[in-house]
Design a protein that fits this description.
The radius of gyration is 25 Å and the shape is globular. It folds into three domains: 208 residues, no CATH class; 235 residues, no CATH class; 55 residues. It contains 24 helices and seven strands. Strand 3 and strand 4 form a beta hairpin. With 517 residues, the chain is mainly alpha-helical.
């Protein structure tokens, strides 16, 4: 997949000054490359680039084998077997092996040890070491997400994991969330990304990462914090125009009291009548000693003071609301269209949402089979995540980079770091948020880094040795089958003017065509 010698190769069209004989040889390579794999139409290329994080050879082959309908059906089910090598790498990570409960216990114990150190210098050094350990955990969590997004054949599921991480956004920089975001993604988001919205909602409502981020972990009867209740209604379910009142926020906040975090081995001291109501799952707990057991009225519905069953009742109530159906449908459509959807499309999606009990794949199918979706193909500007991943999937087709640190740095530079959105609204899906002149300069630098070498991606990670050098072969059979058909004449002309293979690579990855999906 790479050229370790730094020389040109079959798909690059040489400038005339290199001589007609070399141009003829390279042209022959182009012909042979094209003949090896039937080209897709421009419309098919644009469709695949929207449904996936960018084409690779395996994606094209699967699409050609199943056809569009079969490919979409399989993607909506997340039914393809994962790569065994990728699964092995992921399962070896500490972010998978060590439960968040243990991480929090260890962090708390280390904090107490640091406080007991004799000198301030020793305490500062120990805090720095603990901070580095937390940053390493966060880096490994991001690496896991990016490796899956690059290599998983279930590309639609990977995009939906990213979408829901933004919809139910948490910020790693608050409190001890660096120890929690790995489990939050793995247990609250990923299993439900193509499931039912109601189950996804409840999973986020009962995860320590969300409860800490939106200040519910210490909310208790008599000392109620309304922050999570407000965002739960405004950002996660009904939407700001969803018809709720300030009283609904207050009543919901009462119902959420007692939801919190408990990582220690000891249990809280409770009255005998409360002990059967206590619930603990990993680091999450429902503590009836902090719960407001009074009757609440939320959205016109009476919720009796039963303890944790109130939370499940609220998840049912909010997920089933027509306002939630419309709000979630509109947000899904805006992401997949790259623009605001029509009211008619949102209405059709909302009807399916309600009819199927909030089944996410059924709602998505309405989008993918709509005329609006077809009309926007190839016209939506890629956000940083989609741009970087699509460049890597094309450049290193079939190879798995070991070192994700350059990718993490690129996303930081482009303003879309994983788990890095400070506010709870998540990153915007509006393309205008990512099209500034500064963004374009950074993208050109990234295109040049990928096109001119391996950018450190194969330099080894976690002690592994380097496995590849040189620059990628972008003018490949994959290019002629699944990229060239959708290129504009101006882009083709620009590629023809390249003075070297590295420059040709850079021109392609920085082209206006490649910025679109």
């Amino acid at each position: 997949m790479t050229d370790s010698t730094g020389s040109g190769q079959g798909g690059w069209r040489a400038p005339r000054r290199l001589g007609p004989w070399l141009g003829a040889l390279l042209a022959l390579g182009c012909v042979l490359g094209r003949a090896a794999q039937p080209a897709l139409s421009g419309a098919e290329v644009n469709w695949l680039n929207r449904v996936t994080y960018g084409v690779d050879a395996r994606t094209v082959e699967r699409y050609q084998a199943l056809g569009r309908k079969g490919f979409l059906d399989e993607q909506l089910r997340g039914a393809q077997d994962e790569d065994a090598g990728l699964t092995q790498v992921v399962q070896a990570m500490a972010t998978v092996r060590i439960p968040a409960e243990q991480l929090l216990q260890d962090a708390d114990a280390e904090g107490k040890r640091i406080q007991g150190l004799a000198s301030e210098e020793a305490r500062q050094q120990a805090r720095q070491a603990q901070n580095q350990a937390a940053n390493q955990m966060l880096s490994e969590t991001a690496r896991r997400h990016l490796l899956r997004a690059l290599a998983s054949p279930n590309q639609l599921r990977e995009q939906m994991v990213w979408f829901w991480l933004n919809h139910f956004s948490v910020f790693q920089g608050k409190g001890n969330l660096r120890w929690l975001v790995a489990e939050y993604e793995e247990q609250a988001i990923r299993p439900h990304a193509l499931g039912r919205f109601r189950d996804l909602l409840l999973a986020t409502m009962t995860h320590p990462a969300m409860l800490i981020y939106l200040d519910n972990a210490q909310s208790s009867a008599g000392r109620i914090n309304e922050n999570y209740a407000r965002e739960l209604l405004e950002l996660h379910t009904l939407g700001v125009q969803g018809g709720y009142s300030q009283q609904d926020i207050q009543e919901l906040a009462r119902a959420l009291t007692g939801l919190g975090v408990h990582a220690g081995p000891e249990l809280p001291k409770l009255k005998p009548e409360w002990r059967p109501l206590y619930l603990r799952r990993g680091a999450f707990e429902f503590n009836p000693g902090r719960h407001d057991f009074g009757t609440k009225t939320i959205l016109g519905q009476q919720v009796l003071g039963e303890g944790f069953p109130e939370v499940e009742r609220i998840a049912d109530l909010l997920a089933a609301s027509p306002a939630t159906a419309a709000f979630v449908s509109r947000k899904l459509a805006a992401y997949w269209l790259g623009r605001e959807p029509s009211g008619a499309l949102v209405e059709r999606m909302a009807r399916v949402y309600q009819k199927t009990g909030s089944a996410i794949p059924d709602v998505l199918r309405v989008v993918f089979e709509s005329r609006e979706f077809s009309a926007t193909l190839g016209k939506s500007f890629k956000d940083p995540m989609h741009y970087v991943l699509s460049a890597l999937r094309l450049a290193y087709d079939g190879k798995r980079p070991l070192n994700m640190k350059p990718v993490i740095n690129w996303l930081n530079q482009l303003g879309e770091p994983l788990y890095g959105r400070v506010t709870p609204d998540g990153y915007p899906s509006d393309p205008s948020a990512w099209s500034s002149s500064g963004q374009m300069v950074k993208r050109f630098e990234i295109a040049r880094a990928i096109g001119s070498g391996n950018a450190g991606l194969f330099d080894g990670d976690d002690g592994q040795p380097a496995t590849a050098t040189g620059f990628p072969r972008l003018a490949s059979r994959l290019f002629y089958a699944a990229i060239e058909p959708a290129l504009a004449p101006a882009t083709r002309q620009g590629l023809d003017s390249a003075g070297s293979q590295q420059e040709w690579n850079t021109f392609l990855l920085a082209s206006p065509d490649f910025m679109m999906r």
